[in-house]
Amino acid sequence: MSAGKAFKVLVTHPEVPQEGIDLLKENCEIVQVQSVPINRAELLEKIRGVDGVLWGGHEPLNAEALDAAGPQLKSISTMSAGIDYVDVPEVKRRKIPLGHTPTVLNTAVADLAVGLLIAASRRFHEGRKTIDNDKWENYHLNWLLGQDIRDSTVGFYGFGGIGQAIAKRLSGFDIDKVLYTTRRRVHKEIEEEFNAKKVDFDTLLAESDFVVIASPLTKDTQGVFNATAFNKMKQTAVLVNIARGKIVNQDDLYEALKANRIFSAGLDVTDPEPLSPKDKLLTLDNVVVLPHIGSATKRTRADMSTIAAHNVLRGLAGEPMLSPAY
Asked: Which domains, ranges and CATH numbers included, belong to the chain?
C-alpha cells in the first residue's frame, strides 16, 4: 500500500465520475476495474484485499464477490437507488455497512417520469411514426387525440422520494388528486401537500387516469402489474414505469396495449435490459420506451458518485453512512 494512505478502495467501473474518485483519493489508494462491460474475472481479482468498494455498476454483488474480497472488507456503497442486484442479507450477515444513493437522483428521475407521462398520453411515438411513414394527416379534426393531465387522478404504486417528486411536478399541471398504494402511510403533511390519499391496489387501478410505478423491486412487487391488474384499469389509463422492469409482467402489458385495454404506456425500464430490438413490445404504437436513462444527467451522476464516496469513507471510519441501505 502506498505511504500515507490508510485504506485501499476498489471502484468497480471505469466511468464513475471523477468527483467521487477525487474524494476517495484524499485518504485512500484507489484500484479501478477498467473493462466495459465489466469483466467479472477482473473485478474478482482486483477486489482481493480491499477495505472498501464503490460499486459503480449493476453487477451482482453477492457472496462470490465478498468472498473474493476477504474478511477485511468493511465498507461498500452502490451508485444507485435500487439495490435489487445486491444480496443484501449476505452483506448484512457479514456485518458490512452498505450504502446507496437514493434522494440525489429523485429530481432527474421525476423530470423524466413527467416526460414519459406526457409522451405516452399525447402519443409522441405514434405521432413521429406517422411522419416517418408519410401518414401525416392534416385534414382530420380528431386525429391523434390524447389524454389530458389537468383534472386527472394520478395513482402512485410506491410513494417515496421519487413518487413525491413526480407528484410535486404534476401539481403544476392542475391535476385533481393523488392516490397512492404503499405498505405504510406517508406523513399527514405530505398527504395534505399533494392532496393524496392512501388506497388499496384495486382502488388505485380502478380510479387512476395515470398510474405511475415508483416502488422498489421486491418479491412482493415482482409481476404485480399483470393481466388481472390491467383489466381493472380504465381503458383511457396511461401506465408509467420508472422503477424496475420486473414489477410489470411485460407479456401481459403487450397484450393489454395491443388490445387497447389501456390507452398507452411510458417505460424507462424493461424486462430484460437491454431489450432486444426485435421485442414485440417495440412493434406497438402506444408505448414509449427509453433505455433506463432516468438518472442520466451529468449533475445527477456526479452527485451519485460523491454520495457513494462519502458512504464508503464513513464506513471505513466506522461512522454511520450518509445514506445507508439498511
From this structure: 7-81+298-317 (3.40.50.720), 105-289 (3.40.50.720)
